[in-house]
Amino acid sequence: MSALAPADLGPTLPRDLEEQWAQTRQLFSRAFASSLHFSIATVDADGAPHVTPIGSVLLGEPGRGVFFEVFTRRLSMNLARDARLSILAVDSGRGFWLRSLYRGHFARAPAVRLVGRVLGPPRRATKEEQQRFARRVSAVRWLKGHDLLWGRLEFVRDFAVERIEPVHLGAMTAHLE
C-alpha cells in the first residue's frame, strides 16, 4: 500500500491494535457507506484543534493507512507543523441506529477513533491506491460532482496508527468494553 519501506514506518504495532484491525476496517467501511466521510483532527498553529471532513481514508496493513490530500489546505499546513492526527469514523446507518435505540444497546461498535501521525510529506499516489478509492465511489461516477471532487486524486499522506480508541456511548456501549 505504501511507498515507504517497512523500516520507515515507525515502531512495531502493539499486539492488541493488530488484533482490532479487522474490526476497525469493517467499521470504516460502514462509516463511509453511511456518511461518505471521516473526520480528521489536527492541531493548528495556535495549538487549537482543527477538524477536517475527508472521504478518502484508506486503511491498509495493520496500523497503516493513507488519505488523499484534496481540498485540505489547513490540514496540510497543520500536518507540516505537527504530524499528529486523530481520525474519527462513525457508522451513521439509520437502520443500525434505530435497531440499537430500540434494543437499548449497540450490537457492534458505532464509532472508533484512530490516533497516530503522518509519516512524512505527501507523496504521489500509486495506481493501486487510486483504483481502490475509485472503486469506493464508482456508484456515483456518472454524476457531475464525482469528477469535481475526485477527478484528480494525485497525492496521498501515509499515516501510522498508534492506538485505536473505542467511542463510548454510556450504557449503549458498556457491554462492548
From TrEMBL:
Return the InterPro entries for the record. Answer: Pyridox_Oxase_N (IPR011576), Split_barrel_FMN-bd (IPR012349)
Q: Where is the Pyridoxamine 5'-phosphate oxidase N-terminal domain?
A: 33-149
Gene3D superfamilies per record: Electron Transport, Fmn-binding Protein, Chain A
Protein name in the entry: Pyridoxamine 5'-phosphate oxidase
Q: Which organism was this protein described from?
A: Myxococcus fulvus
